[in-house]
Amino acid sequence: MFRRKGFTIIELLIVISVIAILVGIALPRFRGMQDEGNVAKAHGELRTLQTAVESYREHHTTYPADIATATLSAATPQIIATAPTDPFNPGNGYQYIVSENGSYYVIFSYGPGRTANITAISDAGVLTGGADDIWVSNGTSPTGG
Predict the structure, then answer these.
(1) pTM
(2) What stretches of 69-133 adopt beta strand conformation (E)?
(3) pLDDT by residue (tens digit) across 39-54?
(4) How far apart are CA 80 and CA 75, in angstroms?
(5) Tell me, what CATH number does 129's domain have?
């Protein structure tokens, strides 16, 4: 009896289909793990920035106008060498808002949604917005950070 070596087209299509299904299952899980890592990174960097802002206030009696490297690294004593970038907004730093009366601030990351949902902090220290943003503040919010 004659026997051919190799695979038929049907067998190859089945193998390719199974591989495609497995890749389709694995990719969303990988993205979720990346987001979890970025959330942890953002929490750590936000705590560092919060410490830098509080240190700035101790030495200058007001909160900084911004958290750019120029402000915090030029301060005497130097507080941080470089401002970290938001892992959910590549190439850009964390967002920073000071209340109009200068008493409250919020520093935030865009979070897994990759859009800024925090829009303001009131003179009473209450945040407007938040959703999935990751933030630290000396104010309050009904949803938490």
Answers:
(1) 0.75
(2) 95-98, 105-109, 120-121, 127-128
(3) 999 999 999 999 989 9
(4) 9
(5) 3.30.700.10
